[in-house]
Amino acid sequence: xxxxxxxxxxxxxxxxxxxxxxxxxxxxxxxxxxxxxxxxxxxxxxxxxxxxxxxxxxxxxxxxxxxxxxxxxxxxxxxxxxxxxxxxxxxxxxxxxxxxxxxxxxxxxxxxxxxxxxxxxxxxxxxxxxxxxxxxxxxxxxxxxxxxxxxxxxxxxxxxxxxxxxxxxxxxxxxxxxxxxxxxxxxxxxxxxxxxxxxxxxxxxxxxxxxxxxxxxxxxxxxxxxxxxxxxxxxxxxxxxxxxxxxxxxxxxxxxxxxxxxxxxxxxxxxxxxxxxxxxxxxxxxxxxxxxxxxxxxxxxxxxxxxxxxxxxxxxxxxxxxxxxxxxxxxxxxxxxxxxxxxxxxxxxxxxxxxxxxxxxxxxxxxxxxxxxxxxxxxxxxxxxxxxxxxxxxxxxxxxxxxxxxxxxxxxxxxxxxxxxxxxxxxxxxxxxxxxxxxxxxxxxxxxxxxxxxxxxxxxxxxxxxxxxxxxxxxxxxxxxxxxxxxxxxxxxxxxxxxxxxxxxxxxxxxxxxxxxxxxxxxxxxxxxxxxxxxxxxxxxxxxxxxxxxxxxxxxxxxxxxxxxxxxxxxxxxxxxxxxxxxxxx
Length: 586
Known about the structure:
The chain has helices spanning 4-26, 54-62, 66-75, 101-114, 144-162, 178-194, 200-208, 213-220, 237-250, 259-284, 295-300, 303-313, 349-362, 379-389, 426-432, 435-441, 455-459, 466-483, 500-510, 512-521, 526-545, 554-578; strands spanning 39-40, 50-52, 84-90, 94-99, 128-132, 166-173, 291-294, 317-320, 323-326, 337-340, 367-373, 397-402, 405-409, 412-413, 451-454.
């Protein structure tokens, strides 16, 4: 795993330190400890490949003008055998350094050598990271927010893996609490509604003909005076289907049963099917989890009760209006909050506290990262305040807050699926657009930015579609490599790659490992999509300016073929991180 930008930067630092050492030996500067200096990669390459501010930061210590210090440093530099062939002083004392051809040749050779591992770094040094994302309630289908969260969370986990972390993906199943109670109520109402006397003829008629489930729902499940549907229930078609299928298995056996037994039976039947559906739909989206963690385990093993007990024993709670409050304001939260209601039932945040305690203490992850919706801004400080009270280092818990998605078609906001006429879910979205487009588009912007998803653009086969544009660059290179036939490229003379467009392309290839590190540091996989788009642009620019098949010499053609192959490898590695396909033909 070689990062030639980092290698050159480290070499340059040593060259400068050696020059300063010679100046001290010559008596030209005093032997004073110098402040840290920066080595940067300028955006404008006319300013060199690296810029160093050592003379600027040393002026006060050495009691000399920066430009004078820069001149002295340059006078005693020994660039022989290094990756640099020259330097020049700019402005008041910046020193700009220019890379030699050996560095450019080594970068290309390194990509070819490392192949599918090019770009991997050791930033994380094997630290264990748990990325939790989507974690949709298992009481209904996944919505568009889950689609964005899935793409962001999965690609973030890939980026962290490439940056040298030991990463696991986790889905937290909310299979306890209020939403499951609401799920049971909804199923019970729909089940009982099936056996209302005035529905039996419709039910029998439905069983005898090939009506659609939508027709069945419209007839059998009309809200009426006998069975009005309360506001606080789930009214989706999925609830209706579960009730009908349950009735198909058990008939009216549960109609006369105790309501608790009836709801438990319905939930025990429907919930596993919903969880299986979540897993199936996410696999279709190319997301596979290492762990499916159930909230119910935290209730069953006493973890939820233990959190409440610990906070009480530590003196961080008080009673008010019959409820138990946590002194969150003493630990960084804006205000205190209830952890046990007056009816004795813990609030929803308590299992979440126990869950994150489990992540960071019980299972001992070095870092836990949650990908959350925009409605969780206030939730994170509350969660962290309780963990801090429990003695957990909350620096090890980070949250990626994700903004809303606006679906657009023909410039208009879209809320309904063309096929079903209902709200667009993850599944209906993937029926309308390619998975490649969904995963790429949802990672086009930082998570904390609002995102407008253009459904028309996502299926367009043109350079306006960013994922098509990148995939086309890959396919174009495959075509180039295929059309030249059996040309031996094993002994290519990469020192011939001296044209500005070639060098610009190689420089950009070399920045891939650093882009992965920055993406990991900032929890921003959108940097990778942007990188692939820019890489495709620089490749097309190179290809238009530097003929490959009709190069001036056979030797130059071979060198350019190797460069093309290196670009293709980087595209494959980057798109592989995003789990986006790399077609060889388009």
